[in-house]
Specification:
The protein is built from 20 helices and 13 strands. It is of the alpha/beta class. Helix 5 (127-135) links the parallel strand 2 (95-99) and strand 3 (138-143).
């Protein structure tokens, strides 16, 4: 694209965003508009389909739209008009965009961004999709992602897939959108969807949320079902919302948590953490009051020379204090250098071995597919690597996974090492200092959370000197979502940092 043409496109994008800034409505605001007959679900879906048509050719955040989305919207409108009981549920009639690794038993594909799974037929909706449908939510479509959730090769660009192309950061188009749940973050940031859902193994919700100035919740592993989601590592994988506000993310979380027979071991264990009365009760403007929050400066509070971020985050720490939080500063996580190295911690060994087992099981469960094993996927990529849309970024992670043979002594030792690092590091620091949460910039803490199965919430916090968004992350021990919601919502209400995309070149 020539520079003058690019400039015109940027102006058009910016004007579109500015024109529809009032459309950044929250779920609560949309529900009020429904109830006052100022808006219906069909009109809302039509709006988002229009925004996708205008913005997606540049941003590439949406992979497919649901051809039945308007039909689902009409049904929601009829149910609301008839006062059907489920029409009182928070997500009823709200369009939801799903990462393209989350299975839907409808006309949409589920491919993880790969042509290898195009046309494959899933046996059923993913567990969280069943819960969304039960609530009356509208499946708007599938969002782009880093192919195979960033697990094909170390050289694959973040936010890129053969089917979706390269996703763009709506704030600074040349900046990374981060992955692997890039599409959900891009789409809600740019108002191409009301809310979205992504997945995280290590950073795949928190990092896109940070880079796209949206809210991402990484739930405790097992709190949300992984059944019907193209897997990476069952020990680490979790499913969570990516939205524009903490309240919207909490409404989505409340809808998708809970027991699922098809992921029964993990969801049964984690169901003990679900609070009586749900999660929305923790949306408190004074949620920071009395919370003990740890600050781990090394290595997280490190910023490049000349960056404005050091002062911004110091100001945020002061805001936390002003709002009643008690900060315990200069804490250290024992073994943080080892934890941050996936090979040294054992995370890589576990994920690679589990991937082969889990992806083979997923592929064999499909009703129809041209690939039935990791071996088949590798062969597919080799066969079509010369095609422009597929590109030859290699598949070194796939090949490493193919070379594994189940969970042997090496993997068992890695699992034990991750447990020890977690116990002696993050958990010990949290317990000894009686912390409710840890605060850190960006998503740099994600390896710590990944190996422990811990939850976190990323909230918009800043924009760097170039206009690229930066999030603030609040993390805690397993089941601490209620406290993290109070803290995150309190911070969001006190700072109100998020602004609409700028579409800078």
């Amino acid at each position: 694209m020539t520079p003058p043409m690019l400039f015109l496109v940027l102006l058009a994008l910016l004007s579109l965003s500015t024109c529809h800034a009032h459309k950044e409505a929250t779920i609560r605001e949309l529900r009020i508009a429904f109830n006052q007959n100022r808006l219906n679900s069909r009109q809302l879906v039509e709006f988002y389909l229009g925004e996708i048509k205008k913005l997606n050719p540049i941003l590439k955040g949406v992979l497919e739209v649901n051809p039945d989305a308007l039909y689902e919207a009409d049904r929601a409108d009829r149910e609301r008009g008839a006062n059907v009981p489920r029409s009182l549920v928070d997500l009823h009639g709200i369009p939801v965009l799903l990462k393209d690794s989350i299975a839907t038993k409808d006309k949409l594909n589920t491919t993880s961004g790969s042509f290898a799974l195009l046309g494959s037929i899933v046996p059923r909706d993913a567990g969280i999709v069943s819960k969304l449908r039960k609530s009356g939510a509208i499946i708007l479509g599938k969002a782009t992602l880093s192919e195979w959730s960033n697990f094909r090769s170390l050289s694959t660009p973040s936010g890129w897939s053969p089917r979706g192309g390269q996703g763009k950061n709506p704030y600074v188009l040349s900046a990374t959108p981060c992955g692997s749940s890039s599409g959900p973050a891009i789409s809600v940031a740019a108002n191409m969807a009301a809310v979205s859902i992504g997945t995280e193994t290590d950073g795949s919700i928190l990092c896109p949320a940070s880079f796209n100035s949206v809210v991402g919740i990484k739930p405790t592993v097992g709190l949300t079902s992984r059944a019907g989601v193209i897997p990476v590592s069952p020990s680490l994988d979790t499913i969570g919302p990516i939205c524009r506000t903490v309240s919207d993310a909490v409404y989505v979380l409340e809808t998708i948590v809970g027991f699922d027979y098809n992921d029964r071991d993990a969801t049964k264990k984690a169901s003990q953490y679900i609070p009586y009365g749900g999660y929305t009760q923790f949306l408190k403007a004074d949620g920071l009051k009395g919370k003990r929050i740890g600050v781990v400066r090394n290595p997280f509070f490190v910023f490049s020379n000349g960056s404005n971020l050091h002062q911004v985050f110091e100001n945020h720490l002061q805001t936390l204090r002003h709002e009643g939080a008690i900060l315990i500063d200069n804490l250290e996580i024992k073994g943080i250098t080892t934890i941050s190295n996936a090979t040294a911690s054992g995370e890589a060994a576990v994920a690679i071995a589990e991937f082969k087992i889990a992806i083979n099981a997923y592929l064999k469960s499909l009703v129809g597919s041209s690939v039935r094993s990791l071996t088949d996927i590798i062969a597919f990529n080799n066969k079509f690597s010369d095609l422009e849309k597929i590109k030859n970024f290699g598949q070194d992670i796939f090949l490493a996974a193919e070379g594994t043979n189940g969970i042997g002594d090496l993997e068992k030792a890695a699992i034990a090492n991750m447990a020890r690092l977690t116990r002696e590091g993050y958990e010990k620091m949290m317990v000894e200092n009686r912390l409710d949460a840890v605060v850190s910039p960006r998503a740099d803490i994600s390896p710590v959370l990944a190996i422990g199965g811990f939850p976190a919430i990323s909230v918009p916090a800043a924009y760097d000197n170039k206009g690229v968004p930066v999030g603030i992350c609040f993390s805690g021990l397993k089941g601490s979502e209620p406290t993290l919601i109070e803290i995150s919502y309190g911070f969001e209400q006190a700072t109100n940092v998020r602004k609409i995309p700028t579409f800078l070149p």
